[in-house]
Amino acid sequence: MHEMSIALAVIGQVEEAAEQAGDITAVRSVRIQVGELAGVVPDALSFCFELACAGTVLEGAELVTDSVPGRARCAPCAHEWAVGMPPRLSCPRCGGATTDLLSGRELQIVSVRWEDGPTHALTREPIPEER
Q: What confidence score (pLDDT) does residue 23 get?
């Protein structure tokens, strides 16, 4: 289950940001973007996140997941469409197979809310994937 490695990567990045911010005693919530083509099961990620937060500054934090739909653009005719699941990567207008994936593979932390504090946007770096 690669959702556990993703949860651990999120926790690691948030702990690092909390340490750099200084004097952070608890994290209330973490908001992430997950593209529908990222191969991540949001419920499994939430479960793993809750387990992995135990004993950390994130213990009890809520994981808020924003789903990002997959969208593609046909290079020859510039038509854009929702890719859907299973993904349709050939152009529905002209049948072209030369497409650019515009969205749907995102996996990144958007913001973190500290205990009794404001929401902080983190740099929008992708969450490292397991290799």
A: 81
